[in-house]
Write a structure and sequence with these properties.
- Two copies of one chain form a homodimer.
- The first copy, chain A, is an alpha/beta fold.
- Chain A is globular.
- The first copy, chain A, has two domains: about 240 residues, Rossmann fold (3-Layer(aba) Sandwich); about 80 residues, no CATH class.
- Chain A starts with a strand and ends with a strand.
- Helices cover about 50% and strands about 10% of the residues of chain A.
Chain lengths: ~400, ~400
């Protein structure tokens, strides 16, 4: 079975995602599609608007055959670790032949040249990175600058475009991860049409970014407004989740526990959390003086500076909310890759893939958080419990769902 | 100025408290009364139903002249440390001549004999205590047993009554603390009339325990029901606080952040909090399986065993809620006593006392949390912020009130 891998968040799954999925299968000649999907907390440091089982169901209804969870250790990270974790999951299945991702240019060759240059001599990149970090630059900016320096030093400055747009950057890091992992997965890219990654206006009759759709929902308060832009199956799932009090979830849903955590911690305590770097702990403590109300949005507005992007700040607040400490998410731990594959859902074809994976997978394949005691799995189970506390009528059964919920099956 | 000290929580201040205060001044011949009062979190590990400035005002309206805050490090403790902290505050003022407390028997001489026996040879008590703790007994039970053994060994078994009723136990520990601190404050006791400490039924037309009053309020939902049992000033303050959305606060007001904290922490993390001892961290983690809903009351019901009293469990959950770690509340740190005196409110006579305290106080006298950086003061300021998050419309100004609010002045 020829199988394509896609890396997704589906927050929510919309017509643009559907197009990408269909094109991915078409250009790779795939019979089946495997999605690795962020769980409850996403790459830009935000909670998903609906839970991971609901979004896995959207994926299955839209043509994915198997949905695997990207551990939160990787999902709420800058491009480098997000990409590394996601590619590691796909690679560990042993059944994925191709990886297909969207990019602004659709120029795989140029992206792969950049990836090659950046992985060729990891020592040199690490040295440049280390020097820039010592200058006090934040990690993502330092990485970009180090990579640009290295490309320029090799006379390939024209490849620096790969570091400048979000989908290029993600794509570049998928390619780097494939190389680092020595994966046999072949990459493909599709030029992104219509709507930009985080574009917040709707400019097309049928394709809008997930960001624009979430904004539309916030403004109108009505799920029906999304109908032109999402598959009917997505809309039905969203409406069902909303009726059950499980959606929409957003950052404001976590205002009380987040502010509680920020107010009860001194700077020393704050500095133990992942992403809290460069004195951000002092800035957070000081900010309350000028804060008008206990809204996460207001806090982010106040914290934002040229140095700290909103995305970086959201990831930081998320690690504090989830209680993830620096020592739990060291580069060494992240680089050691995935220790298990967590199945969120499958179709009949996905079941066949799971059958094949009994032989091919390089790590255990599990269907519930009760099936293992890996550190990253524990973080996922706890993140799910924290997410469930944001529901309209939170209850312990929902909080422990990670231990009990079987995968979503579309049979 | 002859000055009596009283140790109070006033949750809320009722007719029984008023009687005790009036009698205390009468039997000690005092011109002025100084109350040391628990702040936002109380001896039995509960939040106060109204904030500390409201309760300080109740105290001033009822005849106290100066209200000082008992730091939360001491206030949410078993009798031994609660008493030690409270007596240390009174002693540090240098203006308090007498301490008057309620007791079931009113027998000061017997209580003081017990206190003398228990302080006479601290080494012997510590040895017995240490042996019992090694057997695995919880601290308060071990202390009681060690003290009983010591009294029996000295042929004073009849004094063991002092360890058996809550006001006897508190009184005993006030007397022990006076001896440990070498205080010149002279103790008095008043036999408690009418209503027992935690008695939950109302048995008298004008005197009911604070516990009974809080229950009455919960059942009726109407502050007016309290009118027969509290001074008119108390009622007016409570109604005002309720209208402002600041009362009533109870444990359920903290359900979301408490459950968030419990669900995001693993057992190792939980074990770092003060009061989390004897494997309670594992019991807390396991309990969610059987919990029907996210109510603190339901959690306490499930956690309660013969070994863990509800009070011990409330104190434990409180330290987790407040983020107080074992290392912040070691016996050594508690035994070192108070480093400052925090003024919550005063009358004109109280202002005279404050004037005298410029000479007499053994530690700095402060009127706001902005006036110092002592570790226990930081804990108080953060506890106030956490308390303010439970208000109906929490806002950052309320959360930072500890740094800005001047003392309540009744002039």
């Amino acid at each position: 079975m020829r199988t394509v891998g896609v890396i997704v968040e589906y927050n929510p799954l919309h017509n643009g995602h559907l197009y990408h999925l269909q094109q991915s299968k078409k250009i790779t000649g795939a019979d089946a599609a495997v999605a690795v999907m962020s769980g409850h907390f996403l790459q830009r440091g935000e909670p998903a608007l609906a839970d991971k089982w609901a979004r896995a169901e959207m994926a299955l209804r839209a043509g994915c055959d198997l949905v695997l969870e990207l551990p939160v250790a990787y999902s709420a990270q800058a491009a480098q670790w997000f990409a590394y974790g996601a590619v590691a999951v796909l690679d560990a299945t042993g059944v994925v032949d191709t990886l297909c991702f969207g990019s602004e240019s659709g120029d795989l060759q140029a992206l792969d040249s950049a990836a090659e240059a950046l992985t060729d001599e990891p020592g040199e990149l690490a040295e440049r990175l280390s020097a820039l970090l010592k200058e006090g630059r934040p990690y993502p900016a330092a990485y970009t600058a180090a990579a640009q320096q290295l490309l320029a030093a090799r006379g390939r400055a024209e490849l620096a475009f790969a570091l400048e747009q979000p989908n290029h950057t993600l794509g570049l890091h998928y390619l780097i991860a494939l190389r680092q992992l020595g994966s046999r997965i072949a990459p493909f890219t599709i030029r992104r049409e219509k709507s930009g990654y985080a574009q917040s206006d709707i400019t097309d009759a049928a394709i809008a970014s997930a960001t624009a759709l979430r904004r539309l929902l916030t403004v109108s308060g009505s799920w029906e407004e999304l109908a032109p832009y999402v598959p009917a199956t997505t809309l039905a799932i969203l409406v069902r989740e909303a009726q059950a009090g499980r959606a929409p979830v957003d950052w404001e849903s976590f205002a009380r526990p987040l502010f509680h955590e920020l107010l009860r911690s001194d700077a020393a305590e704050l500095s133990t959390f992942a992403e809290v770097t460069e004195g951000l702990e002092h800035r957070i403590r000081r900010i309350f003086e000028d804060l008008g109300d206990f809204k996460v949005g207001a806090l982010l507005d106040r914290l934002k500076t040229k140095r700290y992007t909103r995305t970086k700040l959201q990831r930081t607040l998320l690690r504090i909310l989830l209680g993830h400490r620096k020592q739990q998410l060291t580069p060494e731990k992240l680089a050691s890759g995935v220790e298990y594959i967590r199945v969120l859902g499958f179709t009949p074809k996905g079941r066949e893939l799971l059958h094949l994976m009994r032989q091919s997978a390089s790590v255990p394949v599990i269907t519930s958080a009760a099936r293992g005691h890996w550190a990253f799995l524990e973080l996922d189970a706890r993140a799910s419990a924290i997410y469930a506390l944001a529901f309209r009528h939170p209850d312990p059964a929902a909080a422990l769902r990670d231990y009990k919920q079987p995968p979503v099956m579309i049979l």
